[in-house]
Amino acid sequence: MYAPRRKVFWFAIVSRLAIFMLQVIFNALVPDHQADAFRRPSDPSEEVSPWDRAVYFLFNGLTRWDGEYFLHVARYGYTYENSLAFYPLYPISIRVLATFLSKVCPVTLNIQSAMILAAVFLNFACFVKSALVLYDLTERVFQNTVTAYKAAILYCANPASIFFSAAYSESLFAYLTFYIMRASIERLPNVCYPLGLSILTRSNGMINIGFPVYFGLRHLCDVAWKDTDGQQGKWRFLLFLRRVSRLVTLRDCFAVFSTAIISLAPFCLLQMYNYAKFCTSLFDHNKSSPPVHVARYAAKNNLVQPGMTESAWCNARVPLAYSYVQKTYWNVGFLEYYNFKQIPNFILAFPILYITLRCAKEFVREHKDELYSLGLFDRKTKRESAQTYPLIMFVFVAHGLFLTIFCLLFAHIQISTRLLCSASPLIYWYCASIMSHDRVDSEYEIGENAYSRWKVFFLSQKRYTTRDKLVLLYFIGYTIVGCFMFSNFLPWT
Question: What is the pTM of this model?
Answer without folding.
Answer: 0.93
